[in-house]
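In response to reviewer comment 3 from the previous cycle, which asked for concrete evidence that the modeling workflow produces usable outputs, we include below a single protein chain processed end to end. The sequence was submitted unchanged, and the resulting structure tokens are shown without manual editing.
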Amino acid sequence: MASLNFNQKVPAIIKNIFLSIILVTIAYASLMVLEYLFNEDYRFWMASFQEMRAEHWSKVWIHALFMFPSFLLIGASVNYSVRTDIPEWKDTLITVVMNSLGVWLLCAINFILLKAGATSIFSDFKLTYGFVFFVPLTLYLTRKCYKITHNIWLGAALCSLMLTWALFPSQGYHSFSYMGQTWIGNFFNI
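The workflow returned the following structure tokens.
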């Protein structure tokens, strides 16, 4: 457990969380440039990162706060067994592939059932297919952030912010919980 640097001082934890906010801000700024120039968003098969209203970001922080402990546990379990007897790229590849097999197997079962003419599937495809991309992405980011900082805090903060950013735009626009504009949206005309 000591190799994960879980027991860090509060200023170091705040630095990691602040760095994750900076990284997500840079990613969001690049998304805004991409949408302005090419009218495209970051879309990877069934997963996407879209532009959001200012009001939605207030909800993203709350959801990310609740996901943060889960990503700390994921970071601890993924980075607890870092191998040093093989090259770093191979260790990362093995970690991502082995931990993603469950989601890929679930999608394969759904595909086989649908091709066989089944009337019901094993898992709802709207939920499962997005994770085909997000599980490997979060595993890779968790491992890469750990390799760079030698702690699990940055990876947990970054992954929780990215996952809530990806989940919330569609939920915020198409759910039953309508969010009216606030003074922020009116003032900045967003």
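Residues 2-173 form one domain. We consider this sufficient to address the reviewer's concern, and the full set will be provided in the supplementary archive.
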